[in-house]
Amino acid sequence: MELEEREREFCDRQHQLELRRVKLEAGLAGTEPAQSRPPPFRVDTAVKPIPKFNEHDIESFLISFEKIAELNAFPKDKYAAVLQAHLTEKALEFFTKLSVQQCQEYNTLKEALPTAYSIVPEVYRKRFRGMTMNHHETFSEFTFRLPTQFKKWFEGKKAYDKIERLRELFMMEKFQNCIDGHLRIACDYWIKSQRP
User: Fold this and answer.
1) Does the predicted model carry a pTM greater than 0.70?
2) What span, in angstroms and rounded, lies between the C-alpha atoms of 97 and 15?
3) How many CA atoms lie within 13 A of 66 on its CB side?
4) Which residues neighbour 51 within 8 Å (Cβ) at sequence distance 6 or greater?
């Protein structure tokens, strides 16, 4: 009985060794060759292709940042760490006021940055309404810039995907443009105080 068990163990061991030998010969040993494994993600290397943070055009910076991160296959959970390395002055000051958890979440940072510079929906509305095509700008460049301000304006007002809210905004804007300056200020104040 004991002899049979030993023979079975010996046969199993022989079989395992034979499988290992075949795998080694075929280049399929337990681990992949070091060249085929992607290098570990390093924030210090990821920071290099990102353009300098532009406090005057945060939206374009964030769009560029996301495209470069995606093209270079940055892990999404590392976006916040790479972005933080680019913050300057006011953005860095604002960053220090956020909680550690907020600092680790890219979407939270992305939404908070415009707030640091007081870029609210009204700023986007004014930018959109005042946009003109620059002399050196092509039609395609202008049409690329145009929807950015429009979308930010309506997303900030929670109206981008809601047609009823969109109608309300257009009518409110027209109403405010038709009333006297002093009355417009009072009206703005009243509207803001009515919103929860």
Assistant:
1) no
2) 63
3) 9
4) 61, 64, 65, 68
| Long-range contacts from 140-147, C-beta under 8 angstroms, 24+ separation | none
Q: Which two tokens stand for residue 11?
A: 């046969």
SS3 assignment, position 5: helix
What pLDDT tens digit does each residue of the chain (196 aa) get? 666 777 777 777 777 777 777 677 766 545 555 556 777 888 888 888 888 888 877 888 888 889 999 998 899 999 998 998 888 888 888 888 888 898 889 998 888 888 777 777 888 888 888 888 888 888 888 888 888 888 888 888 888 888 888 778 877 777 777 777 777 777 777 766 765 4
b/e map of 133-146 (b: 16 or more CB within 10 Å)? eeeeeeeeeeeebe
Please name the residue that has the structure tokens 């590392």: 78
Q: Give the separation between CA 141 and CA 135, rounded to whole angstroms.
A: 11
Amino acid at 63: I
Domain ranges in the chain? 2-31, 43-116, 121-194
Per the structure block, which two tokens stand in for 63?
A: 């769009």
Token pair in block for residue 125: 């509305």
Q: Determine the Cα–Cα distance for residues 120 and 124; give it in Å rounded to an integer.
A: 7
Residue showing tokens 């009333």: 179
Q: CA dihedral defined by 132, 137, 139, 141, rounded to 10 degrees?
A: -100
Residue that has been written with the tokens 């007081």 in this structure: 118
CA 34 from centroid of its chain's CA atoms: 32
